[in-house]
Design goal:
Blueprint lengths: L1 H42 L9 H27 L2 H6 L2 H24 L6 H9 L5 H11 L10 H27 L4 H13 L1 H6 L1 H10 L4 H5 L15 H14 L1 H4 L3 H9 L2 H11 L9 H14 L1 H7 L7 H11 L2 H13 L10 H29 L7 H9 L7 H10 L3 H32 L1
Length: 456
C-alpha cells in the first residue's frame, strides 16, 4: 500500500511538472504578446495619447519597410543553402494546402451561414486564407525568448527563417487568387458608381474635411500592417473584371483606331480561342507589379545571397568580413515584434466597427478559421511526416508547419478589400474579432503542438 502511495505521489509530481512546463511554453508566450498589445491599446487611449494615429502610421511604415525586411534578411540568409532549399520545399506547399482546405471550408461556411449574396466569395476568402506574416513571427519570437523551449539554440533564427520562407507564396496567392475573388459584384459596383456621380459636387466640397478627419483617425488593422495600400487602389482595380472585359470588347470593336489596335492585332484577337483570351485578360489585369514589396524583396535577396557560399561567408558567420553590417540589420530586426504588437494594440483599441456581414457568418468564419481548421492541419502535417517530406528531428520545422494552420485570417487579404474598394469595413470587423479570439485558441493549440513535437 505504501509503495502504491509513493508511486501515485511520484506520478502526481511528474504530471504537475509537465503541466507547469506546458503552461510556460504555451500560455506564457501568448501572454507576452497580449501584454505588448495591451500596452499599445493603453498608450493609444485619448487621455494618454502617446501612440497617436500619426505615430501609428509612421511606426507601421518602419515595420513594413525596415524592421521586417532586416529580420527576414538576417535570419533567412544565415540559414539558406542549396541543401536547405531542397529540404524546405514542403513549407510553401503546406501553405498552399492550408489555403486550399480553408477555401473548401469557406464554401461550406457560406452555404450554411448564408451571408448576403455579395459576400459569398468574401466569406470563402476570409475563411481560407490564413496569416503567414507578422503574427507567426511574434509567436515564434515569444516562444524562443524563454529558456524552457525544446527547439534548441537556433530557435529564433530557424523559426524566423521558416516563417519568412513561406511568405512569398502567400503574397503571390493573395495578389492573384484573392485579388480576383474579392472583386466587387456587378450590382454593387453599378450602385456605387451611380452614387459617386450624384455626389460628385458634395465630395469636391468636403474633400479637405474628409482628408483631415482621415489623418486624425486611428488606422485600421489592415492599413497598419500593410501601409499605403489605399494608394495602390485605382479605378481599374475597383471595377469588376467582367465589366471591364465586355466594356473593352465593345469599345475596341467600335473605336479600334482610337485605341491604337493594328489590323494584325485584330486578326490575332479573332484567331485567339475564347478561353485563352479570357485567361490572358485576367493575367493582364492581375497587379503583379505590387508583388515586390520590401519583405518579399528581402526574402529574395536572402535566398540569393545565402545559396552562394562566397557571399554567405562574406555576410554571415563569426569571421564574416561584413559581419558588422548584418549585426546592424539584426539589431534593427529585433525591434519588429514589440513594434508590431504595439501597432496592433493601438489599432484594435478603436473597436470592430460596423459590418453588414451578419453575426452568424462572422461567428462561422471565426470558429472555422481558429477552431476547426487546425485539427485538419495536424492531419496534413502528420501525413507529411509519414511521407518523409518533413525533416526528421527538426522540431521547429514541424511547429511552424502546424502554426500555419492556426493563424487568423491574413491581414493582407483584408488589404485587398481596400485595393478593390469593397468589403473593407467587414474585413476590419472580422479581423478584430478573430485577433481577440485567437488569444485563447492559439494558446490551446500550442499546447497540442508541443505535445505532438515532443512525441515525434
Amino acid at each position: 500500500m505504501r509503495i502504491l502511495t509513493e508511486q501515485s505521489m511520484v506520478m502526481a509530481v511528474r504530471l504537475g511538472a509537465e503541466v507547469k512546463d506546458m503552461i510556460e511554453l504555451s500560455v506564457v508566450p501568448v501572454m507576452k504578446v497580449l501584454t505588448m498589445c495591451a500596452l499599445g491599446t493603453l498608450l493609444a487611449q485619448p487621455k494618454i495619447n502617446i501612440i497617436t494615429p500619426a505615430a501609428t502610421r509612421l511606426l507601421s511604415k518602419l515595420v513594413f519597410a525596415l524592421f521586417l525586411p532586416c529580420l527576414i534578411f538576417t535570419e533567412l540568409g544565415g540559414l539558406m543553402t542549396f541543401s536547405n532549399l531542397a529540404h524546405w520545399w514542403f513549407i510553401p506547399v503546406n501553405v498552399l494546402l492550408s489555403y486550399f482546405i480553408g477555401c473548401i471550408a469557406g464554401v461550406i461556411v457560406a452555404l450554411v451561414c448564408k451571408p448576403p449574396a455579395r459576400f459569398f466569395r468574401f466569406t470563402v476568402v476570409m475563411t481560407g486564407i490564413g496569416n503567414a506574416g507578422n503574427l507567426p513571427l511574434a509567436i515564434v519570437g515569444s516562444i524562443c525568448h524563454g529558456q524552457s523551449h525544446p527547439f534548441g539554440k537556433r530557435c529564433n533564427q530557424s523559426g524566423v527563417a521558416y516563417v519568412a520562407f513561406s511568405q512569398w507564396v502567400a503574397v503571390i496567392v493573395i495578389y492573384t487568387f484573392v485579388y480576383h475573388m474579392l472583386e466587387p459584384p456587378m450590382d454593387y459596383y453599378e450602385l456605387v458608381s451611380e452614387e459617386a456621380e450624384s455626389d460628385a459636387s458634395v465630395k469636391g466640397v468636403d474633400a479637405a474635411v474628409a482628408s483631415r478627419e482621415a489623418g486624425e483617425s486611428m488606422p485600421s488593422v489592415i492599413s497598419a500592417e500593410w501601409p499605403d495600400v489605399r494608394d495602390a487602389a485605382t479605378e481599374d482595380s475597383r471595377t469588376p473584371l467582367l465589366a471591364r472585359f465586355f466594356r473593352n470588347l465593345s469599345v475596341s470593336s467600335q473605336t479600334s483606331t482610337v485605341e491604337g489596335d493594328s489590323p494584325r492585332a485584330i486578326i490575332r484577337c479573332l484567331a485567339e480561342p475564347r478561353m485563352v483570351r479570357k485567361i490572358r485578360v485576367v493575367a493582364e489585369k492581375t497587379p503583379i507589379q505590387h508583388l515586390m514589396q520590401p519583405p518579399i524583396i528581402a526574402s529574395v535577396m536572402a535566398i540569393l545571397v545565402g545559396m552562394f557560399p562566397s557571399t554567405n561567408a562574406l555576410l554571415f558567420g563569426d569571421d564574416a568580413v561584413l559581419g558588422w553590417f548584418t549585426d546592424s540589420l539584426t539589431i534593427l530586426g529585433a525591434a519588429l515584434v514589440p513594434c508590431v504588437m504595439l501597432v496592433l494594440g493601438g489599432t484594435l483599441s478603436v473597436g470592430p466597427g460596423s459590418s453588414e456581414l451578419g453575426l452568424r457568418t462572422t461567428i462561422g468564419i471565426t470558429v472555422t478559421r481558429l477552431v476547426l481548421l487546425p485539427p485538419i492541419g495536424i492531419g496534413v502535417v502528420l501525413f507529411g511526416c509519414k511521407l518523409g517530406v518533413v525533416p526528421q528531428g527538426d522540431k521547429m520545422f514541424m511547429f511552424v508547419l502546424l502554426l500555419q494552420h492556426t493563424m487568423p485570417t491574413a491581414i493582407l487579404s483584408g488589404a485587398m478589400t481596400s485595393m478593390r474598394g469593397y468589403g473593407e469595413r467587414e474585413a476590419s470587423a472580422l479581423l478584430f474579432w478573430q485577433h481577440i479570439s485567437s488569444v485563447v485558441t492559439i494558446a490551446v493549440y500550442i499546447v497540442i503542438y508541443l505535445k505532438i513535437v515532443s512525441y515525434l
